[in-house]
Amino acid sequence: MTSRALVTGASAGIGRAFAQQLAARGTDLVLVARDGARLEELATELRSRAGVAVECRAADLLDPAGLEAVASRVAADDQPVDLLVNNAGMGTFGHFATLDGERELDEVRLNVVALVRLTHAALGAMEARGSGAVVNVSSIAGYQPAPDSATYGATKAFVNSFSHALHEEARAKGVHVMALCPGYTRTEFHERAGLGVSHLPEMLWQSADEVVRVALRDLDRHRSVSIPGAINKTIVSVSSVSPPNVSRRVARLVIRRTG
Fold this sequence. Notes:
By secondary structure, the protein is an alpha/beta fold. It has one domain: Rossmann fold (3-Layer(aba) Sandwich). The chain has nine helices and nine strands. The strands form two sheets. A seven-stranded parallel beta sheet has the order 3-2-1-4-5-6-9, sandwiched between helices. Helix 1 crosses helix 7, helix 3 packs parallel to helix 4 and helix 4 (101-129) packs parallel to helix 5.
C-alpha cells in the first residue's frame, strides 16, 4: 500500500481524480498546482472524507524556482514520496507556424522538461530505498503524429518512450514506472487548449474518474502502460501499425472536425 503520493496538476481533472481515489485508499497526499485556493479546498474535502494527511504546494512548474521546490519535496528523505503522479501538462491547437512560439516552448517545458526533472528526483530517492512508483500522464496522441496539435503530440510521444525506457531501468531497483495514456477525457484541458470537441460522439469520452480507476488497477498490476477504454486501445493498435502518412492524415481530419 502506497503511504504518500505527490500529484501535480492536482486541482482539477485527472489530477484531482487521482487525489480523491488515492485518498480513498488511505494514501497521504502532497498536492501540487498553481491555484493554491483550489488545492486547499480539495485538501479540506479529503482530510474530512478520508482522514488522510494532505500537504498543499502551490507552485508553477514553468518557474525554475517552483520546479526546483517541488523536485526537492519529491526527493526528500523526511516523509518520503512513494508515488509520483506527473499529471501537470498543457496543450495547444492550431497551425504550428501561426501559434505563439513562446507558448509552444512552454508546452515543451511543462510536458517534458518538468516531467523529466521530477521523475529524476523521484527515481533517485526511490531506487535508494528500493521501492516506489512513478505514473507519467501521457496520451494516446503520443502514438501518431498530430497535425494542428503538433507540439502536444510530440511531447506525449516523448513521455511514452521515456516512460517505457525507465520502466525497464527501474524495475531491477524495485521501482515501477508506468505511462498513462488516456483518450478524450472530460476535463478543463480541451477548453484551455482551444480545441473544440462538441462534435465528438459520446462513445469516445471517458470521465477522469474512469481513467484513474483503470490507471490505479494497472499500477497495482505493475503494467508499463495503461490505456483506459477499449476504443482507445483499438486506436493505439491501429496507429501503431499504420504508416505515418496515413495516421497523420486521419489524425488531422479528426482534429479539424473537432476544432
